[in-house]
């Protein structure tokens, strides 16, 4: 039953019917129809319910400014909320459901809420639910609120393409002005991109063009061909929704319903804004009744979709622009009657307008079409920082003169006259912009009469009426930003595209001030709602934060390693599929009893070279590096200028002018940046060179009493004898033909060698060491076992056993602070009042009574005197197979004397433990020097 | 998203850059006596000027530090100079 569809006209294809559903009933439209045009064609007038009062709502506009026709839509098992019926093109089998309405928009069981409107005015929630506690009411209110529901099904393959592009000139809007400007710019040799958000280019030309002796179809086709022949690109279905710094414009390109839209990050040398203008509503009593529609929208439905919005409508307008549309409607057979807006005019009807009443006179009609004047669409202009002027003639905010980076043309610039807009666009496209032409457009401001009878809607979707604006003004929420938040005016789905000017006009009238003095709210991106997915794209999981992979990963997998992420690296936590904890205990014990083989490839290997390398590292490190001999290794800290421990690790002096900085695995990038910054800013960069070799060398560590026995069977040129190769020294040699580096350093407290080869030879090294290990009964151990071994020795991990206040003397490293002669990063900060305080948190060990389990990591030490407060916390805690439960903690010094007891609180449980030395294993270091 | 120009690599997206410091700040010679106030000013006080600013940035992909001049109000980039040429 197609009652309002005309037999000809429009941009739809009548040979391609499409069936769709709305609120459980099936309807038919044509290819090219939006849901809204197809529903109007079928005579469906109620498409939703309002947010607060559940009032029936009809279609108001024909495009993005629609406040009412929001739907949940399902197609092919995919459901999406927040779809505008006016911008969603119908597809076969599409099922739309009105929102905020049950069971249907036409028969909504909550429609009765409207009877209570007297009590639900502006600030109702703030005032009513403040006592006793908003949170008591919130769940119920939240359940009632909202428009539509999110489907819980995950949309598979809903992934946005991310396009990065650039152009000389981006033209936003494919109407007469935009097409003209794009053609002129392209023909002038510019790289031009034109974007338009509709399916068919032409903007308002189909509605307005006929009167200017232009055949819209032919004219648009000619411009399109000319643009493309000149090398311009055209993107339809594409909305420019935000303008950012340095000519970055965000574009969202629809891919059809249920498919993720594509994002374009378009970098434009110049943005030409040809975004057009919107028609304003007129504020009068019951102006929210379905059947009351923007006059321009009615013109669009006729011109683009061949749909007659009303056969016998009343028209109220205050501007000259409306004439062409009225003419078009009449020419198509609509019996339009014009009515002047007068005080007390009231819409008639319950679910659809039946006409207007003026005093006692009733004028019957099947629709009311209103045109309250044009509002240039200046959103993008404001995003880009463009300023606005108030134009008295146009009764609108219009863009101030252009800059090099952006220019507004056509209706967006207040140039509503078609011939003038084309002239202005031509000039802008050629790069010789002209001043805004004087206009033939006339309009009269319709005074908003406060305190008048009847409910007059300002924001259709959020049910903000003129009375609410009056309440806000009375309660001194007179700033537009306050008005917006107090009444929720302009906070609906359309973000004030229909309601803001009406609200401003009302507030101006109430305060007796001109509109420009009332001002506008801030325009922020996005211009239309966009799914968050568009920022996400393929950047998920591994692609969002790629994990670093070991060169020996396959070898570890052969051994059934359990891989975990440690500081950005995927590393073996333990080996084998047995019980996690038992396996870790076994590995930690074996490493002490015989030895363990450990993949240490992730350790930083930043080479620092050059004649000033020694002085540079002496400055970068807390510890003295100057006295380190070639072949020697020293443990040390890097501090921030604030004196806080930033990283720890060993420095190897390979030769006089060459060092290897072995920083923490997870800190390599940070340390490299730190070194580069100080190298280039404050030093002579020609005399120091910093080269990160971390991934160029693979490292296998062998630790434990049998470490030397394991390595002895390798075919190397390096003498491992204790006297020839003592603890904290470094040797270079070869293994067969492979270059080899061995550092005798230890993170476990046992005899330990870090053996490195160029990464390409990693497997050869691993195979040789594991084969040699097998003969000695020595197996690989994972990072978890290594963590236990280092904690037994009281060896710290920066960022785990230290925090953002830890200084080196808190960790027991006091000598450089007291004695180092040279300047170093952070030096002065170690002598402030704060650094000298008695109650600094210091590193200690904690010992639990026999038979008790380990403490919880993160548990706080506390005191009750004078009041309960934290004294510090447990930073590391393990069950050790070698020494029992162990823990490291940082505790305020006065409470951290060895032998003292201290209380530890965790989840309501209090335990008493004893402060001990952080080192719990081989405190004389005999094993280290074996 | 802004575009900065690395003196060595050319114009790039701001995500490739890392702010290091305001230009012109010299580290006090810590071998001399420095008052708490002077040290605190070095550590924590920034001019944070409105308008024309001179800053040291690192182009993280090539590792070079350079002097970036820009307008902190309009976000206009006024120029990039290699540190050696800037005589910093």
UniProtKB/TrEMBL annotation, chain A:
Residue ranges of domain GCVT N-terminal in the record: 553-814
InterPro entries named in the record: 2Fe-2S-bd_N (IPR042204), FAD/NAD-bd_sf (IPR036188), GcvT/YgfZ/DmdA (IPR028896), GcvT/YgfZ_C (IPR029043), GcvT_C (IPR013977), GCVT_N (IPR006222), SoxA_A3 (IPR041117), TrmE/GcvT-like (IPR027266)
MF (Gene Ontology): oxidoreductase activity
Residue span, SoxA A3 domain: 453-534
Aminomethyltransferase C-terminal domain residues: 841-922
Record keywords: Oxidoreductase
Zinc among keywords: no
Similarity field: Belongs to the GcvT family.
Name used for this protein in its record: Sarcosine oxidase subunit alpha
Species of the source: Cognatiyoonia sediminum
TrEMBL record, chain B:
GO molecular function, one term: sarcosine oxidase activity
Protein name per its UniProtKB record: Sarcosine oxidase subunit delta
Cited Gene3D superfamilies: Folate-binding superfamily
Pfam family, one: SoxD
Source organism superkingdom: Bacteria
InterPro entries in UniProt: SoxD, SoxD_sf
Alphabetical GO biological process terms: tetrahydrofolate metabolic process
Coiled-coil intervals, chain numbering: none
Organism: Cognatiyoonia sediminum
